[in-house]
Each structure stands twice: as structure tokens, then as C-alpha cells.
Automatic annotation (TrEMBL):
Annotated VWFA domain residues: 53-221
Gene3D superfamilies (UniProt xref): 1.20.120.1690, 2.60.40.3670, von Willebrand factor, type A domain (3.40.50.410)
Species: Streptomyces poriferorum
Pfam families: VWA_3
Record protein name field: VWFA domain-containing protein
Source organism superkingdom: Bacteria
Biased composition (Polar residues): 265-277
Extent of the signal sequence: none
Length: 474
């Protein structure tokens, strides 16, 4: 178990759950569940508004100008006093994003009169023009980056509100919506500011929007044309961030050859490591947007156990977040002793649920991809897998999402039926929703003996009700 230590307005508790008994090999893979719990400390629940600078970029077509102006005005009136803000809207004659507010200078400081003037000026939004190419997402990001260069405050955040009309397909021609121009601009913006995206309407492409928020450590969500409450909620969440960036540090024994870390909840993402030449056995994984709450990770190490002693606990690594640490302990088994299957009280009881959650999200993504173009059999197979795993681990949000595009005939067995037609907008909203933060209620260290499925003989935890392999009742 980990210790508790304060860092950046937060205190952390770090714990590792791993199956202690492992088979020793020249290249042994050890998986562990890393859980980090962060709790706020100090008298404030929100960071001071003076530490916040926000750029609101409004990218809408002419048909949404009236509703967008009203929603922007409501958003501006709700800004916290003391925050720095700037508003971009539409494009000028050269096609570059134009500044809507402030009327003079590049930044305004929120107070009662300034917010009133800004809300009155919301009607100056210039919608995307039909007679010239749109600026494209890279141009919006570059404009925000230039503004933030003048505002060195701890929290710098872009709120991009788009209906897709400002997207230039030539700039995002990559298979994941991150073509050359967008990819290069995201690399330049990473570390300079963070970003959230509000997608209004249903004509936007989710791929570039997800590329933006994944690289800039924010969230993307669908919002109504009257997006004021959604925008205000996004800024309120931002003020709960106590630490914009914090590394997860893994210090390993020389026998450890590789270390990998994947966040599984609230978001699923592979973290990129950094290793300094002066500390070759210490790997840092930058993480972002820390606020009170719980994060779960899959920690994987590859170790050479060929010369290690057998039958004793060995510390392969330590994991640190802030000043809190937890050891990764394993015991190499003697030859001929089989590793106990399932969770047998020796740790690793939560790994099965984490792996199921990863498979579930992957299947859900593939199901949506199969709907465009329509491939009903593939979509039903993938959605069925997602539903079966969601039933196993209690992820109710997956069942709600699938019901928007298919009928769930038998959840435990993973049987779904996709209708003859599916709304493209619903599919896009579902793709955004997968990338949103979803917690996972993982059990503690499971106790008791594993059970075998009477149908397929697959091993399951002692508390499982359905087999994760075949979906039938245990």
C-alpha cells in the first residue's frame, strides 16, 4: 500500500495490486493494477480565478449565429471575476480567426462591467463564410497559442466550440483525423495550454476533435446549440484542477528491461515515458489535469528473472506520485510450481476487471466504426462483446450508449440487434462519449478461490456471476 503525501494542493495515496507469485523467465511480463487516489487539501475547493486564462473560440456556420451569440453571452456573464479571457469568432478576410473581444488589446480581465461589455459584444461573431475556405482547426489552435504566449498563468485553457464548419479537410487528412498541419500544431501547443471541445449540431467529424483533446489533455462532448450551461460546466471543472501536470515515476531494478503505463480510468490512454540519461532506471510518465478523484492504471514491467533468487519476495520497482510511493513486489516460483490461476489472495484481483474494461471500450469503438459504412454483422458482434463485458463489470453507461443504436436482446450473452438505419449524428456522439471520463468500480483485493465456468471451463473470480469468456451464468 502507498503512503499519503501532499503535493500541489493534493494529497495522494498510491497502491499496487499484483499477483505475487510469478514464473521466472529471461523476459517475464508482470502486470499490476496501479490506483492513485487524490484528495484536495487546503481551504479552497477551486483554484483562484486570477490563475486562469481562457480563450473561447467559436467556430459556427451562419445558421447558428443567433443561438451561438446568445449562448456565448451567457458563458461570458458566468466567468469568475479575476479570470483573464479572450474571445475568437469567425474569420477575417485573410481566412484567419478573428478576435471578437476585447475590442482593444488581446486580453480582458473579468469583472462585472467587463463581462457585461463582453456579453453585449457577443453579437459581433462572424460566422464561417461559405465563399472562402474555412480557417481549419490548426488555425484556431495557432491563434490560441499566440494569445497564451502573452499570459503566463498556471491554468491556460482553450474552449473550442464548433459545429464542424471551420474544419479544413486538407489539414486533417490523416487516418485518425490528425493530418500533417493539425499534428504539427498540436505538437507546438502541447504544454502551452489545455483544451476542451464542445461539438454542436451533428455535422462534425469526431476524429480531429478527439485528436485535439487527447493531445491537449481535455475532454470533448456534444452540446446543444444553446451551449451556455455546457461551457460554464467545462470552466467550472477546470477550476477544480489543482495540478496541471504531475509525473508518475517508476524506479526499477536493473533487471527490469522495460516499463509501460496505461491509464484505464477515467480515460483510456497509453502514456508516453521519458527517461533521463543520468537516471536510466527511473521512468517518468507525465500526467495532466489532476483534481480530487481516483485514477487507475495498468503498469507492465518486463524483467529478466534468470539470476534472481526463488521463493522470496523481491521488489521489482517502486511507483511514486508526488511524495507517495508503493512497492511492486513479486516472488519467483521454483521450477515445476504452477502459478495459481485467477485471484487466489496473492494479489492481482482487479486486473481481470481492468482488462475487461479495456476490451469493452475497444469493442465499443469498433462497433461505431462498423456503422459507418454500415456493416451490421460486425457492429452487432462488437457491440455484443461490449455489452457482455459491461454486464460483467457493471458499466451501465455502455448499455445506455448501445441502446441508442441497437436493441439489447440478451446482455449477459452479448446478443444485440442493429436496426436497418442508424442516425449518423448518434454514432458521432457515441464516439465522443467513449473518450469522456468514465470511472470504473473495481473491487479490492479479491479473496477466496477462483471458480471454473461449467460450460467452457474458463476461470473466474469467486464473486463473478457470469463467465467473461462465454457470457453464461456461473
Amino acid at each position: 500500500m502507498g503512503a499519503i503525501a501532499p503535493s500541489s494542493g493534493l494529497e495522494f495515496k498510491v497502491s499496487l495490486d499484483v499477483r505475487r507469485d510469478q514464473q521466472p523467465h529471461h523476459d517475464t511480463r508482470v502486470d499490476a493494477h496501479l490506483r492513485v487516489k487524490a484528495a484536495g487539501i487546503g481551504p479552497r475547493d477551486e483554484v483562484p480565478a486570477v490563475e486562469l486564462a481562457v480563450v473561447i473560440a467559436l467556430d459556427v456556420a451562419a445558421g447558428r449565429r443567433e443561438s451561438a451569440s446568445a449562448a456565448l453571452a451567457a458563458t461570458l456573464r458566468a466567468l469568475p471575476d479575476g479570470a483573464s479571457f479572450s474571445v475568437l469568432g469567425g474569420a477575417d478576410e485573410s481566412g484567419e480567426p478573428s478576435r471578437c473581444y476585447p475590442l482593444r488589446g488581446r486580453w480582458a480581465l473579468a469583472d462585472t462591467m467587463e463581462k457585461r461589455r463582453a456579453a453585449f459584444s457577443a453579437g459581433r461573431i462572424v460566422p464561417a463564410a461559405d465563399d472562402r475556405p474555412p480557417p481549419g482547426y490548426p488555425a484556431w489552435l495557432a491563434a490560441a497559442r499566440a494569445l497564451f504566449a502573452e499570459r503566463p498563468v498556471p491554468l491556460r485553457h482553450l474552449l473550442l466550440i464548433t459545429d464542424g464548419s471551420g474544419r479544413d479537410p486538407a489539414d486533417e487528412a490523416g487516418p485518425d483525423g490528425d493530418g500533417g498541419a493539425l499534428r504539427d500544431e498540436l505538437a507546438a501547443c502541447d504544454g502551452a495550454f489545455t483544451a476542451d471541445v464542445l461539438a454542436v449540431g451533428g455535422d462534425w467529424d469526431p476524429a480531429p476533435l478527439l485528436a485535439v483533446v487527447e493531445r491537449l489533455h481535455g475532454t470533448a462532448e456534444h452540446a446543444p446549440d444553446r451551449f451556455g450551461p455546457a461551457a460554464t460546466g467545462a470552466l467550472r471543472r477546470l477550476r477544480r484542477v489543482r495540478s496541471p501536470e504531475l509525473p508518475v515515476v517508476v524506479t526499477a531494478r536493473p533487471a527490469v528491461r522495460a516499463v509501460e503505463l496505461t491509464e484505464t480510468a477515467p480515460r483510456q490512454q497509453r502514456l508516453t515515458p521519458t527517461t533521463g540519461q543520468e537516471e536510466p532506471h527511473r521512468t517518468r510518465f507525465p500526467t495532466h489535469q489532476w483534481e480530487p478523484g481516483t485514477r487507475d492504471y495498468l503498469l507492465t514491467v518486463h524483467a529478466d528473472a534468470s539470476t534472481d533468487p526463488l521463493g522470496v519476495l523481491l521488489q521489482l520497482a517502486t511507483v511514486s506520485v508526488g511524495d507517495a510511493t508503493a512497492p511492486l513486489l513479486v516472488r519467483w516460483l521454483p521450477p515445476g510450481v504452477a502459478v495459481g490461476a485467477g485471484a487466489t489472495g496473492g494479489g492481482g484481483g482487479t486486473l481481470q476487471a481492468m482488462n475487461a474494461a479495456t476490451q469493452m471500450r475497444t469493442a465499443l469503438n469498433r462497433g461505431y466504426a462498423a456503422l459507418d459504412p454500415m456493416s451490421r454483422d460486425e457492429a452487432e458482434q462488437q457491440f455484443g462483446l461490449a455489452v457482455r463485458l459491461a454486464t460483467e463489470i457493471g458499466a451501465a453507461w455502455v448499455l445506455q450508449d448501445v441502446r441508442q443504436v441497437a436493441d439489447i436482446v440478451d446482455g449477459p450473452r452479448g446478443v444485440v440487434r442493429v436496426g436497418p438505419t442508424v442516425d449518423r449524428g448518434t454514432v458521432r456522439r457515441g464516439q465522443l462519449h467513449i473518450a469522456s471520463g468514465h470511472g470504473l468500480e473495481l473491487p479490492g483485493h479479491t479473496t477466496g478461490k477462483p471458480v471454473k465456468c461449467p460450460h467452457c471451463r474458463h476461470l473466474a473470480g469467486p464473486r463473478a456471476r457470469f463467465c467473461i469468456a462465454c457470457g453464461r451464468s456461473l
